[in-house]
Every structure is written in C-alpha cells, then in structure tokens.
Amino acid sequence: MPEARRCLSQGLPPAASRRWRSIWRDKPAEWGDPEAACGRREFFEVLEVCVEKLPGVQGRVFMMREWLELDSLEICKELGITATNLWVLLHRARLRLQTCLQERWFGNPAKKAAA
User: Fold this and answer.
1) pTM reported for the whole predicted model
2) Dihedral angle sign, alpha carbons of residues 61, 67, 72, 76
3) d(CA 55, CA 96)
C-alpha cells in the first residue's frame, strides 16, 4: 500500500506520519503495569508531587478535567479560555506529567521492586 494511502487510512497525512516517526527515535521507557501502579498509595503521592510542579494554569486545567471531571465547555467558561487553548494546556500538562512520572516513579528501580 502506498505510504500516502496507508497514512490516510490511519488518519494521518503522509508528512505527519514521517514527523511522528522521527519523534520516537528514543522510545519512552517501559512502564510495566500502570494499572497495578495506580492501586498503590505511593504512586499517588508521586503523582501529587508531579501535579503540584505543573505551572499554575496547566495544573488547574488538568485537575479540573481529570479529578473534577468537568467538561471542556465548563472549564473554558470558568477560565475564560478557548477550546484550543484548553487542549494545548492539557497536552503540555500531560507531557510534563509523563516526564515527571518517568523520572520519579517508573524510572526508579526501587519503586518497581516494591511493586
């Protein structure tokens, strides 16, 4: 199947497919069983530290969306931001959380051994 057709069937234009492939030259480390980690109190302590380290508005929109389970319209109305801005803030927050959790939890052999 030609690349353009394959990419479009996956919902990506060909240029985007090439771009995303290049981003993952260094794959993220294996996280094992995230479901099991979420059941541990220590994981939530680390997650809380990571959320507290988020820049102000990123932390706020992440908490509103994930903990309070508010929908996008409610968050945008409350904060006076656009849906696009909300998406960008959530995306950046999730990337920072991924990095923080990788460093503080999943990348820590002592934590894995205790799991």
Assistant:
1) 0.61
2) negative
3) 10
